[in-house]
């Protein structure tokens, strides 16, 4: 972790300037990640809530009776809890200029989990879509149920998009760490 | 594109040595990508062939009658054609030490397409899995059809794994290009 050093001579001034620029750029980069994580959190939580409250139309039309809808709920719930943790970690890093976990653990943890949860959300949303399409025939007596399922799945797809972008950004940090030995890219 | 330079003085010898090491490491890296692409090609092509030949058990049990199975076939077919193109590009780069397209286009093209096709394969396989699960009740008179569908979907999942790893490797090249202005990482 590089901190700005006190001025002593020209060389150190140069290093200080470089470190300050690095810190500012890293803060901006982390803020960008934070925005994507917050958006992802909102959409995945909304998807999970929409799916969880999708019952009561009739005895047979309950999201718990359909494995794909259970998968959508669980995947979005996991992703939203993870996004909440990552938002905390990002706010911590922006405010204290240090990672929550040791740097090498943090960059690999972020990237691997972003990637896996993006895949999880896509897989759940695709399975949910297929189930929703297969149910269209039985939707005459449960239109509200079907529409609410569609909305939950659509929100999950948007959550996947934000997770995918977060995975790209945290992947960038991992490669910076591999090449430079630090998450700083300047 | 850096080529080894003829020896003239100490500085150039150093640069020549560096370039040779870079070239050798890049060749090894490209060979690794080639292995993953070839594996991905085999599995996605096998999946597409398995799905395409999955008919004739009865009139109703034909893969063309199920949208998820059509999706599995199309996604795996597209991914296998893309893998074939990328294998050609990798062999070209290994043999001629130059990319098929201009370097910046090549690294971005590879990464974006790897990522998108990995997502496509996962989405298709997940949708296909959901359809296969929903069909289990009707599988008493078409066991061969159901087993062959399951195999095609499983092969698609393995193809997705190889595409995902290829996306990671080509993502590494993109970040090298962003940071160093070259796909060389040494």
Automatic annotation (TrEMBL), chains A, B:
Protein name, as recorded: CASP-like protein
Quaternary assembly: Homodimer and heterodimers.
Hydrolase in keyword set: no
Cellular component GO terms, alphabetical: plasma membrane
Family to which this protein belongs: Belongs to the Casparian strip membrane proteins (CASP) family.
UniProt domain Casparian strip membrane protein: residue ranges: 30-162
Keywords associated with the record: Cell membrane, Membrane, Transmembrane, Transmembrane helix
Cellular compartment(s): Cell membrane
Coiled coil: none
Membrane topology note: Multi-pass membrane protein
One Pfam family named in its UniProt record: CASP_dom
Lineage: Eukaryota, Viridiplantae, Streptophyta, Embryophyta, Tracheophyta
Ranges that cross the membrane: 34-56, 68-85, 151-180
């Amino acid at each position: 972790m590089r901190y700005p050093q006190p001025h002593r001579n020209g060389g150190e001034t140069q290093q200080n300037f470089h470190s300050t620029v690095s810190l500012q750029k890293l803060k901006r980069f982390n803020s960008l990640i934070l925005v994507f994580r917050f958006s992802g959190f909102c959409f995945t939580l909304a998807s999970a809530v929409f799916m969880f409250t999708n019952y009561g139309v009739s005895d047979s039309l309950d999201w718990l009776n359909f494995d794909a809808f259970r998968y959508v709920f669980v995947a979005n719930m996991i992703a939203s809890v993870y996004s909440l943790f990552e938002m905390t970690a990002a706010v911590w890093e922006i405010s204290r200029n240090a990672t929550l976990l040791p740097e090498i653990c943090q960059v690999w943890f972020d990237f691997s989990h972003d990637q896996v949860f993006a895949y999880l959300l896509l897989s759940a949303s695709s399975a949910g879509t297929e189930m929703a399409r297969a149910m269209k025939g039985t939707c005459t007596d449960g239109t509200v149920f079907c529409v609410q399922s569609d909305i939950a799945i659509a929100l999950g797809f948007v959550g996947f998009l934000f997770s995918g972008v977060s995975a790209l950004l945290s992947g960038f940090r991992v490669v910076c760490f591999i090449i430079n030995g630090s998450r700083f890219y300047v």
